Amino acid sequence: MKSKHKEIDILKELLKEHGAIVPSEGFSLRLMNAVVASYKFSYSKQYRKQERLGKWIILVLVACSLLVFVELKPSTIVLEMVFPVFCFAGGLIILIFMLKKVGRLNHH
Amino acid sequence: MLFKKQRNLDDHYLDSALRGEQKGLEYLVNAYRDMAYTIAVRIVGSHEDAEEVVQDSFLKAFKYLDQFKRASKFSTWLYRIIYNTALTKIANKNNVTFELEDDNEYVSDEGSALQRLTNSDRKKYLGMAIEKLKKEDQLIITLHYIADKSIAEITEIMDMKSSAIKMRLLRSRKQMYCELKKLLKSEIKEL
Asked: N or C: which end of chain B has fewer CB within 10 A?
């Protein structure tokens, strides 16, 4: 029993230390690039429908907001209120474009 | 405790990969690449074919990552894909036979060359001792002792009965130990 355990321990030690076969660096790099490229492609393909749906929802929400805005008759609202609202909307649009640009840079 | 920590880490990076984040993919590839390659080499026998098998298996695994139910470890699931892809590769090549029930000893002509080698290169000797085993036994030894897979997990990967795995493990261990004893006389004494 003792010799059996010794046998297993020796084998374990040797196999742990020297048993694994390491692939070349070139292959490791190729593998990583292939996996990342193919996964990003399939991931974007997988969520293309959801992305389109999301864009439609945003479009409807923006249209509704504009409708409410028109209904409120902006000419009757105090000018001091309209200016900050436009600034906020403008800032939001700039932020969205900046985030899109950063996302695109990370993707490349 | 260590396995639990590893599994939590795997789950964390799996979630990250599922969200399409590159760091998750990189972690999973780096963590399992070497072991995947070792398994592939043990089955297909050549480095070129093993590279193809590993690449195909990783692409397949990540393509169907959202279908991985986490009933087993990610590594078990991945190694099963590698095992099946390697078997398909062998079947397609049609020049390597995968003996399941043949108990004949595998005879290698490397035996005489071994006598001329020094005792310093353990890795080489170990590789030679493993190569003397049958392909399936090589894989079982690799999965159990190098990849730290339990008998139950090997059963899942290779789709074999646990009794058969245990029997093969015992036989291969004995055979390997005898082989190494011959090759590494002095080193075994040191150990």
From this structure: N
Phi, psi (deg, nearest 5) at residue A55: -65, -40
Best mutation target, A21, A22, A28, to test chain B (most B CBs within 10 A): A21
Give how many domains chain A has, as a whole number: 2
- Phi, psi at B144, each rounded to 5°: -75, -45
Confidence band, pLDDT 50/70/90 cuts, at residue B119: very low
Last residue of a domain, one of B76, B95, B114: B95
Q: Which range of residues forms the domain containing residue B85?
A: 1-95
Q: Which residues of B touch A3 (CB under 8 A)?
A: none
Asked if A88 and A67 sit in the same domain, the reply is no
Structural domain harbouring A53 = 23-71
Q: Is A69 on the interface with B (CB under 8 A)?
A: no
A73, two tokens: 């008759």
Q: Is B152 within 8 Å of chain A by CB?
A: no
Check CB contact under 8 Å for B146 and A16. Answer: yes
Cα distance between residue B142 and residue B36, in whole Å = 10
Q: Kindly state whether residues A84 and A65 are assigned to the same domain.
A: no
Residue pLDDT, tens place only, B88-97: 998 887 654 4
Identify all chain B residues contacting A11, using CB atoms and an 8 Å cutoff.
145, 173, 176-177, 180
What pLDDT digit, counting tens, does each position of B130-142 carry? 888 888 888 898 8
* A23: enclosing H helix or E strand: none
